[in-house]
Amino acid sequence: MSLLVKSAGTYSLLVDEGRPHHRRWGLPESGPADRLSFRLANALVGNPRPLACLEISLSGPRLLALHDTGFACVGGSFSLFIDERPLPYQSAGTLRKGEILDIRGTTSGARCYLAVAQGFGSPSILNSQSAFAPIVAGGGLECEESHCPTRWLSPSIFPAHAQSLRVIRGPQAHHFDIPKIITQTYTVSPLGNRMGIRLKGPEIPVPEEQLVSEPVHTGAVQITADGQLVILGVEGQTIGGYHKPLHVISSDWDRLGQLRPNDPVTFELVTEQQAELLRDDYEAECHRLISRVNFWCDDTTAIS
Prior knowledge:
Order of helices and strands: EEHEEEEEEEEEEEEHEEEEEEEHEHE
Largest sheet: 7 strands, antiparallel
Shape: elongated
Number of helices: 4
Distance between the termini: 35 Å
Mean pLDDT: 92
């Protein structure tokens, strides 16, 4: 092992770009819940393409370096320390042999991504390093000895976490009062995870009609039997039988991945044509931000 896990945090899981071509076999994609943060962490540490990262939820691990390790941590506003020395969040640097990286709680956002130079080494299962279980205390993470200059992302480069989710009409929208649903404010339940985000709000009447289970995907907004909403995440099932009045558009899945317990959530209805344009805008903005990070990759400074 290269990094010894002294404590594991709330839920810290190795993820790469996932298994997008295995849904027909009933497997979720299992990639990062916040794709932009995942990509930026890799870019900030100098990886030429996205490699496996440690996705950290709500509070992070304490990791002891067994050799020098270049790292970057990007995402929510987690408190970072090396041997009790505070670091800027959204930062990169080198963890020296014998030092401990301590990733504590977050005041904004739910997840961050720990990238290391040349990526983490772990078994590939169905063409992906995305793990099925979180790391545990006493375990280890494999990575190559490396170094990374000290640099960080300034607030101007990183989009603010937002609780407004843009949605299109779902396959069962005709059964519901959509204007009423989208004018309500909901609250994120503590029961959510990577499979889905549970929302608490006014009870929504559910039609008596039973549905035959049908394909579902990340972002599907389902109504459970108790009249509450659940939004499927990156580990969500591939088939479901709940009514789906709405669907969160793909350009807002990163927002979904950063929702934390008790966050307020509102919806904004867009058309399918608008959703396609917003998807293109999202990919263009990701490319622009990563290009800026790569441009400054040899500088010891704030990237703004």
